[in-house]
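Sequence in, structure out.
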Amino acid sequence: MKRFSIITISIVLLLFGFANLSLAGIIADGQVTDSDTDQSMSICTDGNCELVSATISIWDTGTAEFQVNYDPGSFNGNSAVGISLDIDQDSTTGSSNNGMGIDYAIIIYGTNFQGSGKIWNYPFTTSGITFTTVTYLTDGVQFNIPMSLLGNDDGLFNYIVSASSQLTDSTMTFIGDSMPSNGFASTSAVPEPATMLLLGLGLIGLTGIRRKMRQ
């Protein structure tokens, strides 16, 4: 009975350790949410601007992963997503718009048009860089951007998300909905030493049981 308990505890520790290990690759992550009834119908006349949440995860593989979700039924081929990023937490190093110091601007075009994304860096005087790694979901978009395009100043992001209707390849309506507050990607709460400790204790327990069984 005692041996069974030790084995059980060791396996549980290993499972928790591996679960935490899967999260250890996230350097920073954060989410911001929005009401599902606040889009401007005078701007988005077909109701395709209703944002409900946005999430960003920064991975130690050098990728920033974004996902923007709309209220079910309010995302269509004319829906365009805009994201403003402040990657160094310094309001003096980028555009003063919104008081953030915006370093980068991202637009995800509607599938009825380009069906891709584009990123600009401050002072936004270049033509921008187009990226095609955009996944259009039933009610939103998911896309990855290499941190090499974002400067990787400190791995922590402030971000503002907005939605509008795309009219042509080069024109959009005014913003029809935006998140009520800035999102912030904060350092993951799972510390790497704790993960290794859980794995180590689990392995020690199983090793001890195996030695006793051989004796």
